Amino acid sequence: MYIGNEINRIDAPDKVLGRPVYAEDLSIKGALFGCVFRSTRPHAWIRKIDTSAALASPGIVKTLSCYDIPGENIFGIIKKDQPYLAKDRVRYIGEPVLVVLGETEEAARKASRLIRVEYDDIGVISDPFISGDSKTLIHEKGNLLSHRKVIKGDIEKAFREADVIVEHTYTTTWLDHAFMETESGVGYPDNKGSIVIISSTQNIHYKQKEISKLLAIPEEKIKVIQATTGGGFGGKLDVTVEGFIALSVYHTKRPVVMRFTREESFLSNTKRHPLYIEYKTGARKDGAITAVKVNITGDTGPFASYGETVCLRAAIHATGPYEIPNVRVDSRMFYTNNPVSGAMRGFGVPQLAFAHESQMDEIASMLRLDSFDVRIKNALRKGSSTATSQVLRNSVGIIETLKKVEPYWRRRTRKNDHTGFGLGCMYYGIGNTGVSNPANACLNITGDGKIALHTGACEIGQGSDTVLVQILQEALGLKIEDIVLIRGDTETSKDAGSSSASRQTYISGGAVFDAAKKMRQYLDEKGFYKGRTIREIYASEADKKLLEHNGFFDPPTTPVDPETSKGSPYATYAFATHMTEVEVERETGSCRVKKVYAAHDVGRAINLKNVRGQICGGIAMGVGFALMEEFVPGKSESFDNYYMPTSMDMPDVEVFIVEDCEPTGPFGAKGLGEPALIPQAASIVNAIKDATGVRAFDLPCHIERLKKLIEDKK
Amino acid sequence: MKNVSFVLNGKRVSCEVQDRELLLHTLRERFSIKSVKEGCGIGECGTCTVLIDNEPHYSCLTLASKVNGHDVKTVEYLGDADHLHPLQKAFIESGAVQCGYCTPGMLLSAYSLLMKNGNPGENEIKEAISGNLCRCTGYIQIVEAIRDAAGLCKCKS
Ligand code: FES
Ligand code: FES
After folding, report:
1. How many angstroms separate the alpha carbon of residue A710 from the centre of ligand 1?
2. What's the pLDDT band for A317 if we cut at 50, 70, 90?
3. Which 8-state DSSP code applies to residue A477?
4. Exposed, middle or buried, B99 (CB in 10 Å: 0-12/13-18/19+)?
């Protein structure tokens, strides 16, 4: 009744009135403005920093360097290798060196421009292929951050026996999250002696831990609150402004505001990892894929951020949603002096989907088979074993998603020789890879007769607030008026993990469901479902502790084997098929995406409007990834030279929802945020091939590139 | 400093502004209208859109002194919690809002369109919001919302 319906988002009424308070909208009296002075060198020793002119500038308050950090000058989600403020040495253009605090934004920025640094340049590693063997070390332990393998069956034998083999190299480049709200936050000392940070973020509890280490102050004394957040997509997972703000509050005891300009956001925000993917596929005449060998080389920049995650996730998902008996994947992630790459919607899987779906079409065309049939033939089904030898027992909807688009595929007709159609399929493990990644949720009955839901899950625009409330409503049979949502504050909620890896519906939703089961039993015992009101129950309960019920969910996974990646890294997977029609103007190389049919197995759609919204937004990002988005270090600094889709670039979209129920998910739900994007670029590239006969191996396939490909073929 | 007086959301207002002060900052700081967002500050994203004499303008490129004697509207003009404008209702109903950062600007561009054209086609709608970037929604539900609202609203000027 409360889920699976056309329910509106609970935050939408406020948002259409322009009322939500984003971090930059908080006016705090007497707040200082902080900005970051950054390195202009990709790799250099810092010889001397001269702040004298800056400190003489009007309105300047202070500059802070690494020597002002009372705790540890290092952070990182997995491997802690990134300094907040450079010490002795800078490793990329844009690396923070100093925090500059002024009475106003203008004063701070002006002073910052007066800082002079003398550098001694060091050899620059700008390419992951030279990084591994270089004598120049970006970190003491070497330039290889991570090497992960997936090994299954006998790959050499399978290639020897294959009827056809297709082998190509695919490359992708840096992309920016380009959330419309840049990184921002405020901080202040509260009257209990704590430091409070309110910021635009995807994970409050992680940031609380990092700040605690940075300042050497216990976690209880650091409070992190999520402001309304204007998009995340992975780019607000790492510590952005929070550490600098906390450090500034620590030293000045005054409120501090920080906000990156768009240019600064482009310069400093983590990027999608550029991957170089060598891909070899072997198949039998009947279209059965027997072998896949992949070499992935990635560039994480000078710091790990989510590089290890991307390295492993790309490897595990390299074969796509297909059952391949013989697999060998080598995925390596190198340090370079390029921009820091990190988490961005899909953690390397969109890049791999581009490769495996291109291969799929190539195999089909060599064998003169319909690429749709080849996909169905190889698709994972119940009982299949994945590349990591995980046997899928439940909720394997890839074939259903293919069947949803099948009628359109079979009926497709090219209107003229400028149009073409392409398919893209994907699967995606929900939640973090092979590690425990639990969420908590807490429910309690309030004196005014409501059920309060406390969660640490960050609403970043994806709609988690609404989904969690719907799950609670459905589980308890409660109207929206009976519920209050309290979230995004480390003081009032327990850790729910990050809003990343498409995990909040499934994992935080699972935690809410768990708490709701307990609450339901309690309410039932107290006669709620026989007509007693919540208010009466509250009043009659002598032991108020009994009014609180905690929920917890940690998806059942196993760590993967470090050598072969054998294991069950995810408890459940999402599946999708996109079919795309494009129109290409051969003379100019301009490609228009006309229509997308998008079918997604989400387990159970909790909120139909959100599902459609995620899919349409994912398609937009996929259009950008395929055709226009390219971050060029040193050049891309604004939307004038980083092109992303506008309303004019969008196709018509038809959405199909497949609900192959996931038994461990709340009401059967899985996740969708990243899957929405993953197959889109692949389906465009395949459609371009159908339209023009040329295949793009390098993304983005922007207008000049496509024009050249078409000309070269003539 | 200069004195400017203009009509802001239907009310006559006046204030002192710096010579090179941008309307974006005047509205956010002097009038506390925080729905006007600064997504880029250089005229490339549309989150700072306001209507000047009912035409959409980037307030980050507009000098405050330039609105002297003109009519300025922000999203606050459209409606309030008890009286949502049909466009605002349609944005809610169509799922056209995700993170909400682009939403005020989108609504204003749409409103300006509907004032001029009560029955716009899909391409006219797309064109009208082409200066407003949205990273979340893929625009599709926004276009649907504007189309749905078109039939319902008489946009007051
Ligand atoms: S802030 Fe004015 S257009 Fe971006
Ligand atoms: S809703 Fe997030 S930018 Fe449009």
Report:
1. 37
2. very high
3. T
4. buried
Helix (H, G, I), strand (E, B) or coil at A684: helix
**Three-state SS at A365:** helix
Using pLDDT thresholds of 50, 70 and 90, give the confidence band for residue B152: confident
Q: What separation in angstroms does the CA of A619 have from each of A584, A590, A627?
A: 18, 18, 12
- The answer to the question of residue B115 being in a domain is yes
Is residue B154 predicted with pLDDT exceeding 80? Answer: no
DSSP states of A577-627: EEEEEEEEETTTTEEEEEEEEEEEE-SS-SBHHHHHHHHHHHHHHHHHHHH
How large is the average pLDDT for residues A584-591? 97
**Under DSSP, is residue A142 helix (H, G, I), strand (E, B) or coil?**
coil
* Residue B15 forms part of a structural domain: yes
- Which of B36, B60, B130 has most ligand 1 atoms within 8 Å of its beta carbon, as the pocket-test mutant? B60
Q: For residue B157, tell me if it sits in a domain.
A: no
Between CA A563 and CA A329 the distance in angstroms is 11
User: Residue A419: which of A689, A621, A680 has the closest Cα?
Assistant: A689
Non-local CB neighbours of A700 within 8 Å, separated by 6+ positions: A173, A624, A625, A626, A627, A628, A629, A630
Cα distance between residue A357 and residue A373, in whole Å: 13
Joined tokens for residue A477: 């049979």
CA distance readout (Å), A192 to A222, A226, A256, B13:
11, 20, 18, 41
Give me the CATH number covering residue B100. Answer: 1.10.150.120
CA-nearest residue for atom 3, ligand 1, is B43
The pLDDT assigned to B33 comes to 98
Give yes or no: residues B9 and B71 share one domain: yes
- State how beta strands A451-455 and A652-658 pair: unpaired
Residue A446, pLDDT score = 96
Which residues does A202 contact at the CB level (< 8 Å), separation at least 6?
A: A229, A232, A234, A236, A237, A458, A460, A498, A499, A500
What secondary structure does DSSP assign to A541-574, as a single string? -S-GGGGEEEEEE-----PPPTTT--S---S-EE
Assess whether A254 and A292 both reside in one domain. Answer: no
Residues A709 and A571 in one domain: yes
Say yes or no: B24 and B67 in one domain.
Answer: yes
Boundaries of domain holding A598: 275-433+562-713
**Burial (CB count within 10 angstroms: exposed 0-12, middle 13-18, buried 19+), residue B30:** middle
The Cα of B4 is separated from the nearest Cα of chain A by a number of Å equal to 23
Calculate the dihedral angle through the C-alpha atoms of A377, A382, A383, A387, rounding to the nearest 10 degrees: 60
**Over 90: is that where the pLDDT of A496 sits?**
yes
Q: Mind listing the pLDDT tens digit for each residue in A381-423? A: 999 999 999 999 999 999 999 999 999 999 999 989 999 999 9
Question: Any alpha helices (H) in A286-415, and if so which ranges?
Answer: 307-316, 349-366, 371-378, 398-411
Q: Cβ separation of B135 and A644 shorter than 8 Å?
A: yes
Asked if residue B40 and residue B18 are part of one domain, the reply reads yes
Domain of residue B108: give its range.
86-152
Specify the pTM.
0.97
Same domain, A311 and A358: yes
Whether complex ipTM tops 0.90 = yes
- Is residue A54, in this structure, part of any structural domain at all? yes
Q: What does residue A471 show for φ and ψ, rounded to 5 degrees?
A: -60, -40
Percent over 90 (pLDDT), chain A: 99
* Alpha helices, DSSP H, located in B19-154: 23-25, 86-93, 103-116, 122-128, 140-152
Q: Kindly state the tokens that stand for A378.
A: 């190889």
Same domain, B10 and B64: yes
Question: Closest Cα partner for A460 from A211, A199, A149, A269?
Answer: A199
- Kindly list the residues from chain A whose CB atom is less than 8 angstroms away from the CB atom of residue B100: 11-12, 14-15, 20, 228, 230, 461
CB contact under 8 A, B136 and A617: yes
The closest alpha carbon to A120, from A88, A149, A165, A145, belongs to A88
- Tell me the nearest-neighbour CA distance from B130 into chain A, angstroms: 5
